[in-house]
Sequence to fold (856 residues):
Amino acid sequence: MENSGTFWLPRAASTYAADVDGLFYFILWTSVVIFALVVFGLIYLSIRYKKRGKTELTAGISHNTKLELTWTIIPTLLILVVFVWGFRGYMKMRVVPKDAIEIRVTAQKWFWSFDYQEGINSVGELVVPAGKPIKLLISSRDVIHSLFVPDFRLKMDAVPNRYTIAWFQADELGEYQLYCTEYCGTEHSKMLGKVRVLSQGDYENWVNENSQLGQGLTLEEFGRQLYENKGCMPCHSLDGTTKIGPSFKGIFGHEVQLTSGETVIVDENYIRESILNPQAKIVAGFQPVMPPYQGILKPQEVDALIAFIKSLKE
Amino acid sequence: MNIIPEKNYLTYPKGLKSWLFTLDHKRIGLMYLFAIMFFFLVGGIFALMIRLELFSPGKDIVSADTYNQLFTLHGAIMIFLFIIPSIPASLGNLILPLMLGAKDVAFPRLNLASWYIYVFGAMFAVYSMIAGAADTGWTFYTPYSIETNTAVISLTTGAFILGFSSIFTGLNFLVTIHKLRAPGMTWFKMPLFVWGLYATSIIQVVATPVLGITLLLLILERVAGIGIFNPALGGDPVLFQHFFWFYSHPAVYIMILPGMAIISELISVHSHKKIFGYKVIAYSSLAIAFISFLVWGHHMFVSGQSELAGMIFSFLTFFVGVPSGIKVFNWVATLYKGAVRFTTPMLYTFAFLILFSIGGLTGIFLGALSVDVHLHDTYFVVAHFHYTMMGGTVIAFFAGLHHWWPKIWGRMYNERIAKITAVLVFIGFNLTFIPQFIMGAHGMPRRYYDYLPQFQGMHELSTYGAYLLGFAFTIMAVYLIHSIFKGKPAGNNPWGGLTLEWQTTSPPDPHNFHEVPVWTHGPYDYDKIKVTPDLEKELETA
Fold:
């Protein structure tokens, strides 16, 4: 299906993926052999002993201790192998190396947000250096989500009010698909992301660029950048089309009707409140589904977004 | 020439009232059969809509919210309204007392009550569809199920009520099996169908209350905010998962054990051969029932559950696998030196053996901790689940339905068409779900309305398979209904079975037997008793 990867599995891009795949294929081929034996037995015996002629008495074979012991003991031994192998592989995934770089992962409807030790933040894209173990400290701000990167064989639920921990190390540079795999509502299937694995040098550059995010840009340009990178774009259009939320086109300074029946003028304070605490005022015809950005955006970033929305004339 | 007795349970007594207030286990079984087939149709239509929506990425026919409601209803209806009651409540009710040589179940009024409770619970589920169908998935995970504004309460109330229907049936069967066996029928001379229902009933009675409590707590959380599952109130959403799977994992054995019970019966009857390993099959049903209570945590390997818990649950999970595997070997070995008939029930039995083997073996992938981390919540799980529940239980149900159909109605369906249909079902099923294994292993998450273009080919194949399956089931409905009116009289013992239900008329007398039957042989003594199937008599005398 993908360009790389095998018929059964996607490419193996984390340090522990090969171990998972080894067990996967061990179970696969053992199963194929057992399955082939069952199907062969079924076909052979049913044709060989197909009823011919009149009804007669048949053999009174009720059991065969040796045979039964064989087909009990062999599968038992095989599954013990699978159990131990699976557990050992699992422990590799669970025990985080001491020198791992820690990244905070926050899931909320319907995007992923990543906080780095350098004090920077990215949305929808996890950027990591190659060849370094990365520890993910995961939590959710609303319902349960689950972080899944098939190429890494990595999956961990994001649970509200609790931290879960996962780790990985990717040695190959590249971009890897990230999914949410715990059902979380309307846009569950859109809650995608990327993991970008960079070389050490590129990673440092990325960190530097992002620590100075907005520098050298006008407030409006910075606002547009944030609009594209912080998860606004999937729900709010710029051309007047209605998506999950109202379009930003030409709303500034205009009056909007709320679900409560009141009307309100779209001004700086209204926009600020709608970003940080979106449930407070819901525009009529829309669902109260937007996540609060309190604690995700810095004050300067909120300013930039307001400036950007202001600039979108009709 | 076979004839249908004029006075039988279908014709006597007459009138609608005689059906609505009937205490006859056969009529109650039949009423269950109609009810569950109705919901199989509804759940099936939802499945076809899901598959149509998934034919290509993006929106095809419905919105994301509607899609989420569709898969929730498909799951909830198929599990709570179709599969769980399917074999025990319909075929079990119809056949179990006959097999035991009894006049009825131990508590006929409780039996009728269970049907009405089922209908009452079903009405809540139907009401929930009109009142803004729930979109939580059939698993109702918190906190999503607490905050969604869809009809979660009416659907869970429905499931809560249905639980009582299930408990009553289980209780009734347990007492019936203990107290109403024919003279001479000791425990180890019981047909294996009875053993399977016995193990099932134990789980129904012991596990279902936990689901009831869990759903009640969920309703209270929504209505009153008691703060047990809601993290905003200091509750623990993962606790809900523990509670839910504490019932719902044993529940998959409520679903599969009766299927295994049917296969044990059919493989012997349709090969006129003594079952291989009677005691092993009987004991392994009990072993599965017992171990099934100790493996719920394997649904939660990536939930943040501790590594020690994960290890223990993984270990125990494999020990459910062993008795299941042994049963498959026993069934295949039964054919050795038998006289195998390629009848319709036997074709479904073969389909079961193949599909259930795939379902069981793919379960090994999911029981292995490290591999499960990758496969959890992907289409691999969806496919595995359907191979066991549909390829296993539902196929076994249709095997049993075709096996006992001539007993229930006294008439035979067209075997030629039925066999062709069985082949179509088999092909359609595999076409639907084999692609799901492959895309699941590649990372296609479940419950996705939209998907990446790389998965389109597999989704297309799966959709074609689903429609082939839908087509095959339509043919089945047509020939089965046709046979009720126009089918050839089948005779009392069309397949040459040795168990007691074949010794009475087809359809049976309202009181089952004119005299109390005495059980003088084992259920599968084809080495001692020669019995020519009624359907083969003409051939053999010609």
The domain at 22-541 of chain B is CATH 1.20.210.10 (Cytochrome C Oxidase; Chain A). The CA atoms of residues 160 and 212 of chain B lie 5 Å apart. The two ends of chain B are 13 Å apart (CA to CA). The first helix of chain B runs from residue 16 to 20.
